[in-house]
Amino acid sequence: MATKLSLNLSTLLSQVLIILLITLPYGSHTISAHGFHFKEATIDEIKHAFQQNNLTSRQLVKFYLREIKKLNPLIKGVIEVNPDALSQATKADHERRTLPHKALPDLHGIPIVLKDNIGTKDKLNTTAGSFALLGSVVPRDAGVVTKLRKSGAIILGKASLNEWSSFRSTKAPNGWSARGGFGKNAYVLSADPCGSSSGSAISTAANLATVSLGTEANGSILCPASANSAVGIKPTICLVGGDQVVPITPRQFTVGPICRTVADAVYVLDAIVGIDKNDPKTKRCSKHIPLGGYKRYLKLDGLKGKRLGIVRNPYFSIINNSFVTDVFEKHFQTLRQRGAVVIDNLEISNIDEILDTDKSGEKDLILAEYKISLNAYLKDLVVSPVRSLADVIAFNKKNADKEMLNEFGQDLMLAAQKTNGIGDKEKAALANLRRLSIEGFEKLMKDYKLDAVVTPGSKFYHVLAIGGYPGINVPAGYDNKGIPFGINFGGLKFSEGKLIEIAYDFEQTTKIRKPPLFKP
User: Fold this and answer.
1) 150 is catalytic
2) What is the pTM of this model?
């Protein structure tokens, strides 16, 4: 979707000035007093600098706050900055001076931005990008936030997103929310940043934070990661708790990391997986989390012996770019050279039905689930201007200018409001989605004894979504215009370990990611 905005001359000139400032060679603020390079710094590099007393968390937070102040007016990746971020950094620095290094968890002192649908019981708002939730108060931190705080992470702020995680309107462009404005792809400003976790990917790609969290029901982690040259991990549904996250459908909805490297994404994943006492499904799935966490799978020979299936139809026809197609052919050869057994030209027999959300029943089911889950979330808030989906619809009508209702409408919300619980139609849709997963993706994986399916870009998310399967998207290149694209590795439930091995080996072999240039 594209929206043409009329910019006056002063706005154009200010954006040109910002771009010029951005594209100048790195200034003194990008290097610490001890020679530490802030931009593109990984968690391992930051932790090493901490240990060598070459960096403090306060210095790191101050750097990101400067970058947000400089870049955010243009790319709008951050919707709100945490006023307590510096005090959290001060606490982290004190703990580092007084506690044994081994007592500090992997994310200690690391700044992270959270998608603005992830609840925090602090001075930050949780609004899903909508003015309807501005000033609302969650009863507690989201389960993932509790885990992040326990891991020592610094909550730097909230990332922008597609408003209501793309579930208000089919007409609103990716990256837009009423509160956050129009988020921009950091590599090519006119390119699609994808969504709904657009701001998480934009912020990570543009070095506005070390790492970030997004959420996904249908591509909202994998697609922005692909579009912004980032690594996105969509975990198996139930590995990560969803309590106090503005929902779409608990059946398909999960929190996951969007980072610049596979290793960083894995460190974040390790911090957020596990039992959430307010999300019962996590208890039955916690037994699948490996002892010592997923970082054990960060292996340089992770591709050796892996059986990978390439599904070309319909994903290569979606690309429709010979340059990009040639890049992927080289990547497939790299997979073989690294020791993988690559089985080409595989087909998912029911792929056309899976991709047709009307025919599969997915659309009707999600509409009903959305109304139920959103109403429950809103009812649970301590303070809120709205208490139901009907209230949100009414708010948008009353505040049409602020919410750009005339431009984008709210057709998805209106359709969801018309639903009346989980009836026979929705139960039939649920059964059909299970059938499609078993007879399609699962059958393919088992028939060919695959460890993962490999596809270009991120569009395989449809298949992964309806079955609750995990996926990892890794930077794969840049097209003729400089627009990033990723490669997707998808597997059966609880196959995160294998996917991480595959993704890490591919990333370390190809080393494709580069910082954005903010082209027009």
Assistant:
1) no
2) 0.95
